[in-house]
Structures are given as C-alpha cells and as structure tokens.
Amino acid sequence: MNSKIRTIALFLIFSWLLFPFSGKTQQTIGLFLNDSLSLNGYTLFTVSTETYLIDNCGHLVKTWTSNHQPGLSVYLLENGDLLRPGRGGSGLIGNGMGGVIERFSWEGDLLWSYAYANDTVRQHHDIEIMPNGNVLLLAWEAKSQEEAIANGRNPATTGSQIFPEHIVEVKPIGSNQGEIVWEWHAWDHMIQDFDDEKANFGIIAEHPELFDVNYLFNNNPNTNMDWMHANAIAYHPERDEIAISSRHFGEIWIIDHSTSTAEAASHEGGQSNKGGDLLYRWGNPQTYGRGTPMDQRFFGQHNVQWIPKGYPNEDKIIVFNNGFNRPDGLYSTVDVIAPPLNNDGSYQLSDNAAYGPSDLYWTYREGEAYSSAMSGAQPLSNGNVLICYANGMRFKEVTQDGKLVWEYISSASNTGPLPQETPNSGSTFRATRYAVDYPAFKNRDLSPQGPIELDPIPYDCSIFDGTVANRKIPLPQLEIRQNPVAEYLHITKENGRRLVIRIFNVTGQLLLEKESAEEQLAIPVEHLISGLYFVQISEPHLNGSTLVKKIVKK
Hints:
Immunoglobulin-like, four-stranded antiparallel beta sheet, 5% helix
C-alpha cells in the first residue's frame, strides 16, 4: 500500500471512529424526537418481566424485575413503589389475563404479592390504586352454561361458560394477603328480551342502566367466553365513581362506588340511589337499544380515564380509540368527551334518547396510524397527550393542536434489548409519563444509564425544563499521558463521570472496551502489537460529544 492510499485509508478510519454509525445504521428504535414543548419527566412501561423507566432523552434511569409476565398495566406510586399485575395462578384463561398483584419498593424488593386467580375468578388487564391504599381489581368470573341460559342467554350463542366482569376492592394485608372490602358484579345488572320465561326479561331500550345479556361483539354468534372483555378501570376520587372500558361492547361505563357491597348488587343505594346499575355509558348506544351501527363511536377502545383536576379539560373523559372494525377504515384516534352533567352531578339522559354528548370534544388522528389492540392515551398537566401505540411499542406526545413533540420506539421487546436496524414488532399495554416533580422522584437517583438499545447510535439530546433551552453535557476534561504507550494507557479526567473507552486498530476492529468512573485510569495494552491505534471516548448514555484520539503503541 503506497503512502497516498495509506493516508486516505487512515482518514476514512478516523472519520468512521468519529461517526461510527453515520451512513451505516438506520434508526428503527429509541428516541426520535424531544421537543421543548414536551412535558419533561420519566416514562414508565413494562415488557415481559421487566419494567423500564426512561427520561425524555430515552435514557434508562430505573428497572424493576418480576417473575411474572405483565397482567397488564403498571403504576409508579407517589412513594416510589411499583404496583404491577402479573400473569400467574391457574384457572380461567383469556386474553390479557393476570392473576397476581405485586408491589415492589423503589429498590426492587417485593413488598406484597396477592393472588386472585382460580377456577371461578381471575384478575385481568388493569388495576387501580385508591387514595386509601386499597386496590381495585378488574376481573372475570365464570358462569356456567346453565346459569347463563337461566338468566336469559340465548343457548345458541352460549358455550360451556361465560365470563362477565366484576370488580373487587382489596385491602392489602401483610406480604401476601388481602381483604376484599367491596365488590361489584355486572351479572347482577342484566336484562334480556329473548325468553319471557327466564329471569331479567324486559324491554332493553327502557333500561339503559342494565346490560343486555345477549349483546354480541360485532354480532358474531361465535363470541368467546370473554363476553364483555373489559380492559381498563379508573377511579374518580371526588365523585367516588369507577369508569370501565369494554372492548366487546364498544362502550365506557360508569358506576357508583359509594355503595355497600349489598347495595352494589341491587338497583338502589349509594349517593346516586341507583345501587350498582350503570350511571352512564357512551360509545355504542345500540347495546341498549337506542342506536344503530351508524351511531357507534368507539371501536375496541382502551385506557378510559378522567382528565385529572387542575389539568386542561379537567373531568372530561379520554380514551384511546383503537378503531378495530371501524367502518370507514382501520385507524386509531385519541378521543375526549364531555359527559353531560346535571346540576346535582347526575348524568343527563332524555327519554328514548342515547346518552350524550352527540359529538367528541377533541380528537387526534395521526394519518393511518393503527394499533388493533391494547394501547393508551394519557393526559398530561401541560395539556399534551402521551399516546402509546401498543403494536410496535411506539410512544408519542402531541399538543392540543396536534403537533408531535416527543417520539420514542421501545428498544426492548419480549426478548430483551434490541439492536438498531431491528424494528420492534413487540407490544406493550400502555406507557405512562410522570413529571419531574412527581413525589416518587424526590431524593432518588435518576442518573441516566444510557439507551436501552444495543449498540446505540450516538446522539445529542436536550432536556428541557421550561427555562433552559439546552442542557447538553460535554465530556469532562481529560488527558492521555505518555503517548506513545507501552504497557498501560493512562487517562486522567477531572471528575467521576462514567466513560466508555474503546480501542480500535487501523482496520476499524474493536480490540478493547472498558467502562469506568475512576478519575485515574490505567488500561493494560501490553498485549497490543506495535503500531497506530485509535481511542474512542464517550459517555454510556451518549449525551455529549464522542472524542477520538490517536495513540502509538511502542
């Protein structure tokens, strides 16, 4: 190789070391955007047995590990504990099944584990922490074919079992016990017009507070045992009400929690004096005989919740509307409705009419973006919405006018962290953002540990707190001593920040990699043959510049 070719080759190698992924790797996962309009905070999501907490730059700051697959939601409590249902126990089987509720400390220690799964009941999909520390569990309960038919179910559409929904409120006791202090069962609130000799017979349109025991998802007579398929539960502390999302009914339901268990099984009692009957429902009025397919607005929706007090549009209801079997095409939206309330706080309903409103208060659609299952939409305190497209694990934050201000595709799937150029084909139930001033973070170590993805593409990221436009963290001052080197490469830096040191030969082959926070480093290189090498120095989370220096080995 003549001197001119050698010079060009060394220049190309040096350029590759400065920008090792430039033109080589296409980004498919990790952080794509962090705009100054994004709400600064930490985003929580669970994949397989791992739960991850990342900052707005997509850097991992915390993980928790369970022995159970998700079952399916996960919550970070104000004291720093993690509350997570997992798939466990035996008995009923269905999509989204859980069965074990676990509470971990910030440090990852298991504090409480409660099983709610057997041959007759099973927790699934979602839970909700109450202000008093109790936990609401969304669960199935099994009814036999004989029980279903006796309650007016059409035998032609009834298999060996049917799984209506119920809710239990559990008071945690000790490390693995719980006391059920309140419960509600949908099975206590049925109506049917199929058989006048069976229970619950009546005119469905005259009883919007009850469930039609013969309503079928998409009019499919071969509907599975998971008849209602609720997938989310939320609690409103001021109103003492519970919201539920039913995928198979295409509706959200609201019930009264102020009842006793006995009242919740009846049609009277509680602050509403309606017992456990529905106070409100919306999304598909044909389920109660007051609408047609043209009136259906929700299609497989998830993640119903009230917008919290103090947030823009407080007390309105937000859902992720998956759009499954949407007549005009398969696309997902985030929808907000303003339930019509009377002066006394009850929900307005006119005779023979469907529950209002007649239209959405706000909606967001990203072209043809579509997630057929799971997913979520979280209202944020600045008015933005964090959206989780479960399919492909895509998290996006948008403003009220639809501007995209944060975008991240999970770098972990059910098999663990992924390398770039491997599009994430996994799924996650939802993602939740917690602002930087959330009480759980007080006096906690939230040091960024780098991106989750393997072999991440180096990038700069700005953390915006509303006042600082850019907080790019430069590499610390450092010095390579005694160059040429002999037995050791000595590096001195000004502080204890953690760095990654990589040594490459002139062909670009990685020969050594070391990560350390020590201020005085002595890296053994006596095994290297004499010649020219390149030293690449960066921070693990790549939140600053990458430095490349030439060394000569004697």
